Amino acid sequence: MKTAICYYSRHHGNTLKVLQAMAEEGDVELIDVTVRQSVRLESYDCVGFASGIYGFAFQKAVVEFARQYLPQRKPVFFVYTYGGAKGSGAKAAADIAGEKNCPVLGEFSCKGYDTFGPFKLVGGIAKGRPNKRDLEKARRFYRDLQARMNQA
Questions:
Q1: What is the pLDDT of residue 94?
Q2: Is the CB of residue 110 less than 8 Å from the CB of residue 134?
Q3: DSSP secondary structure string, the chain?
Q4: Would the N or C end of the chain have less CB density within 10 A of its end CB?
Q5: Mean pLDDT, residues 120-133
Q6: Residues 63, 95: contact at Cβ < 8 Å?
Q7: pTM, whole model, 2 decimals?
């Protein structure tokens, strides 16, 4: 299964760590949405969108990337990391997928080390995350996606 995962991962690289674990499981291309590029997602079997949670939602660059490049009816999934609260998670990207009639295959999330704002004063929260167990759960999530796509 040829997969593109379009992502934004800054600060501590939590989301990228999760995506790299998933990429070990198959034919995955990681696409950083902050790098100006013209992307053709039609050639992929499915597309993931991934971000840390910023202000209780996906980073805006990922949402705009989905709006611009996600083809109609392309199977999608969402991945995100968060320090304190999930907030609305992938809702904005999922709404775009709905507008484009894209089936949603699933969503994976886990805690990630966070030192934003007041968390910096206490040395951050979710220290050590994502951890080994989180990364194995991410690999399992992607393997399960592959199995479902292969059955379809």
A1: 95
A2: yes
A3: -EEEEEEE--TT-HHHHHHHHHHTTSEEEEEETTS-----GGGSSEEEEEEEEETTEE-HHHHHHHHHHPPTT--EEEEEEESS--TTTTHHHHHHHHHTTPPEEEEEEEE--B--GGGGGGT-BSTT-S-HHHHHHHHHHHHHHHHHHHH-
A4: C
A5: 71
A6: no
A7: 0.91
Question: Is the separation of the CB atoms in 106 and 77 below 8 Å?
Answer: yes
> Are the beta carbons of 92 and 63 closer than 8 angstroms?
yes
Structurally, the chain folds into a number of domains equal to 1
- Host domain of residue 137: 2-151
Which long-range contacts link 96-102 to residues 24+ away (Cβ below 8 Å)?
A: 96/63, 96/66, 96/67, 96/70, 97/66, 97/70, 100/70, 100/71, 100/72, 100/73, 100/74, 101/72, 101/73, 102/70, 102/72, 102/73, 102/74, 102/75, 102/76
pLDDT (tens digit per residue) in 41-64? 999 999 999 998 877 778 899 999
